[in-house]
Amino acid sequence: MPDRDAWSRLQQEPPIGGLSRRRFLQLGLGATAVGLVAACSSAPSGTQAAGAVGPDSRQVRDFAAAQERRFPGGKSVAKTFVAAPTEVDVGGTRTTAWLYDGQLPGPILRANVGDRVQVRLRNELPDPTTVHWHGLAIRNDMDGVPDITQPPVGAGAEFVYEFIPPDPGTYWYHTHGDLQRGRGLYGALIVDDPRAPSGYDAEFVVVLSDWLTDRTPQQAFDRLRSGAMESAPMTSTALGGDAGDVRYPLYLLGGRPPNDPTVFTAGPGQRARLRLINASDDTAFRVALGGHRLTVTDSDGFPVEPVDTGSVLLGMGERYDALVTLQDGAFPLVAAAEGKGGQAFAVVRTGSGAAPDPSASPDELRAPPLTVADLRAAAAVRLPTRNPDVTLGASLGGTMNTYTWTINGEAYPKYTPLEVHSGERARIVYTNTTTMYHPMHLHGHTFAVARPDGTGPRKDTVIVLPGQTVATDIDTDNPGQWITHCHNDYHLAAGMATIVSYQA
Ligand SMILES: [Cu+2]
């Protein structure tokens, strides 16, 4: 049901920045405001203080101008993404997906650091939507969060995103509309540093997702809300408890099911860079390449001290890059759905030999996987040691009988903002009081996982295990309104989000 009370409250809010929030919404939504309110139940009802720095503020324009000065001469990268319902055949089952440019996953968006990226989104979906550029520290008004950084892009409408990627690495883009992502609206976003040596011969972009064939994510969510749980519990030691809320009929690698796998090819002895991206809604993946060790080099786009492992665990939204020196033959690249029983699968082929079985389970998956605890930031990207100027708590809670997930006792779109000012070291402390892990994501910043010795890896999404407290540090250098939320799409839809709000 639309939250009409929230809408009326928004209309009465005091001005923020130079423009009232009410006016921002009115300008953006124009004559279609009533229709959008009816279609969208997530108009935020946070109480922004008078000094909140809005997406259309002078501070955000100043940030954008400074980025342009920092990267003179970046080349133009212009794309059009058409978001539209598309019939797809996944593993022999036809479903109506929602895709960018008819592709599952969407096209790889690739640019250099400092490029001027322009993506024209044409919304041919029946519902309003936005695109979020996950992990990139870009200007707030291009962040793609409906009602927070822009009005949702209505059905039949267009919006042009323009931004400058400031850091190289493995990122991704996806819709930020309610329960839209699981229908197929996601893709890899890769930022290259032309000055850095590549250090590899082949590159495998590995987009992992969970896939419903018999219902939409909205229908799965409605079922959870009605109190129905999966019949067999799903648990994982590595995840410290519940492994998910939904069991999926299929897990995809590069949009393809195990019986119709992607085949990555390279030469024996060559060094391959795996760019692992977990684009799923409710599934953590444990990834291994049969017969090989992985050297993890980057986490969420930022370099770490390289560490060898048999497998790596990715929560939703996380990325890991790994280098691997390839043997001669054909090998299973397996992403096991942690605690759920199924897997995504591809073939890595460097020579002759029979293709591995899609149900192959490499020995590398047996040992505990690498997690954030095993990583240290590369020296070049460590946040300088500094005491926090402000510490903000985000207590993660949930009530299963109504399937409500909360931060500090509130279910988004209700929220009390976490307030920061520019120029601070801010510490955001996530405490998980529930029995399920939550991959917590912050927009617009790459935090450092706080450690006394300052070696915590830089990340934008971090798994917070049941009962665990994870502190994250940022330097507040990107003014605006930034959502922080659980990257389980059902948990986000059920309220696990709040806003980190820059104050003037
Ligand atoms: Cu969650």
Task: Give a description of the structure.
The protein has helices spanning 4-11, 21-29, 33-39, 58-70, 217-225, 489-493; strands at 15-16, 19-20, 76-90, 93-100, 109-112, 116-123, 131-134, 158-163, 169-175, 186-192, 202-211, 235-236, 241-242, 250-253, 262-265, 271-278, 285-289, 294-299, 302-309, 312-314, 319-325, 330-337, 343-349, 390-399, 404-407, 418-421, 425-432, 438-442, 447-449, 458-459, 461-464, 469-475, 481-486, 497-503. With 504 residues, it is mainly beta. It starts with a helix and ends with a strand. Residues 1-42 have low confidence and may be disordered. The structure holds copper (II) ion.
Give a quick precis of the structure.
The chain has about 500 residues and is mainly beta. It has helices spanning about 5-10, 20-30, 35-40, 60-70, 215-225, 490-495, and strands at about 15, 20, 75-90, 95-100, 110, 115-125, 130-135, 160-165, 170-175, 185-190, 200-210, 235, 240, 250-255, 260-265, 270-280, 285-290, 295-300, 300-310, 310-315, 320-325, 330-335, 345-350, 390-400, 405, 420, 425-430, 440, 445-450, 460, 460-465, 470-475, 480-485, 495-504.
- Number of strand elements: 34
Structural class estimated from helices and strands: mainly beta
| Number of separate helices | 6
Low-confidence stretches: 1-42
CATH fold-level assignment of the largest domain: Immunoglobulin-like
Q: How far is it from the N-terminal to the C-terminal residue, by CA? A: 34 Å
The molecules bound to the chains, other than polymers, are: copper (II) ion
